[in-house]
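From the shared-data thread, chain only:
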Amino acid sequence: MAVVNPIPKANAASEVQDIYDSLTRRHGHMPNFFAVMAHRPAVLKNFLPLYSSIIGHGTIEPRFKELAYLKTAMLNACEY
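Structure, as tokens:
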């Protein structure tokens, strides 16, 4: 099975450097979930508004939303 590794900031495209900085400030590090998307900078840039809308809005706390997608990944045998 192919493995896609996260891209370290030093190797990331210039157009996503500000995203690395922002997410590092917010989380204390660049989450691998997003660093993998940096292989395709347009994907990362376009995914973040969708992700923010899903996680940040609504009546369910963001931590419960994260648990829901992690559980879904486990049920589907996703390695991450």
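The mean pLDDT is 92.
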